[in-house]
Amino acid sequence: MIVQKLITKKFRKKGGNDGADGSCFVILVIIVILAAGLINFVDWARPAKPLPLLTQAEGMVQVETLEVISNYTQTSVTPPQETFGAELYVAGIYTEVNDLLPQHTVALVYTRDNWRFIEIDYKPITLEEHLTTSRGFDPTEVVLTTEVTGTLITLDHTPRCIEPVDDKFPGKCEISTQLSFELDGITITISADGTHATKGELIEIGRSIIE
Questions:
Q1: Each residue of 75-123: pLDDT tens digit?
Q2: What domain range includes position 3?
Q3: What is the 3-state secondary structure (H, E, C) of 108-148?
Q4: Closest-CA residue to 103 (of 121, 118, 127, 128)
């Protein structure tokens, strides 16, 4: 009789602990679900960050109009007259020495249909110096005017792309093709964003800068 009571008491005590453990597990699952929901809400509510359309480097000054470029550099900048509907989105002036672009390079980024269309770099170096450091292949000479000849190179046949974040932040692709030429001691490089600009468009944009 005494043994039976002890066994019954022990069984009831063990069963009570299992119920408590089960309750703790359910509470833990609910906490995890709420935490995951909160994280997703914060990610959704957090403002989207703009994609860096310009090469990031020390001393890069970002501006939105051409008029203020002369406040940071003496590099001569002649904007294109033909852009095939693309508009200036942002400009960057590289005021310090860096490993990516020559000091005092000016970069203009044009966008169309919420995508980067082209980037035009104005570098205070010779065309020969520029081509020496270029990583492209299949160089082709292009006659732009009777006095200016450019070099067209391919950088990537299958450029990867990053979709636009929203209407405010354009998407971009890897640079696929570049047209470079020298004008008044400045090497001008027009880079096509992925497949958004054709080689023919690069050539006409280059001619509109020269003329």
A1: 999 999 999 999 999 999 999 999 889 999 999 999 999 999 999 999 9
A2: 1-46
A3: EEEEECCEEEEEEEEECCCHHHHHHHCCCEEEEEEECCCCC
A4: 121
The total domain count for the chain is 2
List CB contacts of 181: < 8 A, sequence separation 6 or more.
127, 144, 148, 149, 150, 151, 187, 188, 206, 210
Q: Please say whether the beta carbons of 155 and 184 come within 8 A.
A: no
DSSP codes joined into one string, 89-110: EEEEEE-S--SSS-TTEEEEEE
Instruction: Establish if 52 belongs to a structural domain.
Output: no
The answer on 164 and 139 residing in a single domain is yes
For the segment 38-58, the average pLDDT, to the nearest whole number, is 62
> 137 in a domain, yes or no?
yes
Return d(Cα 199, Cα 176) in angstroms, integer.
10
- Write the pLDDT tens digit of every residue in 129-140: 999 888 888 899
Measured distance between the N- and C-terminal CA atoms of the chain, rounded to whole angstroms: 112
List the beta bridge partners of residue 108.
91, 120
- What value does the mean pLDDT take over residues 59-66? 94
What is the average pLDDT score of the chain?
Answer: 85
pLDDT at 11: 43
